[in-house]
Amino acid sequence: MKMKKWLATLGTVSFLIGNVLAGCSNGDDSASGDATNSDQPVEITLAGWGSSPEESELLKQVLQDFETSHPNIKVKHEVIADQYMDVIKTRLIGGEGPDVFYLDAFEAPGLIETGVVEPLDSYVTEGFDIEDFEKPLIEAFQIDGKTYGFPKGYSTLALFYNKKMLADANVEVPKTWDELLDVSKKLTQGNQVFGFGQNPELARLQFIAESKGGDIVKDGNANFASEDVVAGLQPYVDQHLVDKTAAQPNEVGAGWTGEMFGQGKAAMVIEGNWAIPYLQSTFPDIEFGTAEVPTIDGKQGTMAFTVGYVMNSASEKKEAAWELISYLTGKEGMKTWTSKGFELPSRKSVAVELGYDKDELRASLVNGARYATVWSDGKNLPVIFTNFNNQFVSAYLGDRPLDEALKEAQDQANKEIEAQ
């Protein structure tokens, strides 16, 4: 998805990071174990995907700070540039996996089920303060009462709006979805400017699909052809086909909704934190604001994309690996990692300390974390996601009814799930 492509160049997703120092420093860590008591430094490996030069420098700084405060642990940072999950799975199966590695919440349930990810509950001490994490984010790495990872950062989605376009049309920023539909009509200018730029894929639509009480996943199977899900999605499709006040990026020659918005071809889009530095650097003349995603039937909703640090269950250096995880996701390490705003801190206290909860552009994104639907919904979500997208586009383009397209997609997804 386009968001993922931007994160790959800017750094993350995801969608998709301490007061925790050495065991003798301030009491915020777990027991130090052999790693910090050894006379010889222990080397552990941290694997992740590539990021922008700016984020690479930030991570380098965090790792240097960690090694300074943990002189008996050295970190070897490995960047897996392509096919990250395939490479990680192959290495883990082959017994050559890193001690600590990135794990996207989207992939977490499936990988955790294989047993290659170490449960972290026994390593956690009271000073680590699990309650400080935004609840939906940490729950994405919890299965059957066990915690397998801690989120290093995240982004939710917020409504981005062009201040000049709204002012010229004499309309207010919409707070409800009905208002968004109405405002979009007043902002649309033929086929040149659309009131709303849409991103018709499940990773962006799950909270909308479930807004009427339905579930896209039920008992591990695809459930997006249910009446409630179809009812949730129909207004989104109708805005494109009936009202003609919304378009997707490729219909106006743009690569993603952030670019569509920056080019002035959409007055409003729903995008993530990564769009802020992109717009500021690529389209510096545009005046834009952000707001929380408009409510649907009085209920708040948005998506969240997050990545966690997890431990290889086969690691022979688990105490040192935990020291690294607890620092990267502790208050001090996370503060440094998120200090430039490329990712938002998954710890509430760090968001407050950095002022993101009151930031003119990022406060809406931070506020959404507490009620967000995290892009992670069981081990079969990758199959469900693919089949949904394959067929939803036909309804979005008007080739057939939405309920018919989703029924075909659901049946195919569940056949693939049954065959696994």
Automatic annotation (TrEMBL):
<dbReference type="InterPro" id="IPR006059">
    <property type="entry name" value="SBP"/>
</dbReference>
<feature type="signal peptide">
    <location>
        <begin position="1"/>
        <end position="22"/>
    </location>
</feature>
<keyword id="KW-0762">Sugar transport</keyword>
<dbReference type="Pfam" id="PF13416">
    <property type="entry name" value="SBP_bac_8"/>
</dbReference>
<dbReference type="GO" id="GO:1901982">
    <property type="term" value="F:maltose binding"/>
</dbReference>
<keyword id="KW-0732">Signal</keyword>
<keyword id="KW-0813">Transport</keyword>
<comment type="similarity">
    <text>Belongs to the bacterial solute-binding protein 1 family.</text>
</comment>
<dbReference type="GO" id="GO:0055052">
    <property type="term" value="C:ATP-binding cassette (ABC) transporter complex, substrate-binding subunit-containing"/>
</dbReference>
<dbReference type="GO" id="GO:0015768">
    <property type="term" value="P:maltose transport"/>
</dbReference>
<protein>
    <submittedName>
        <fullName>Sugar transporter</fullName>
    </submittedName>
</protein>
<dbReference type="GO" id="GO:0042956">
    <property type="term" value="P:maltodextrin transmembrane transport"/>
</dbReference>
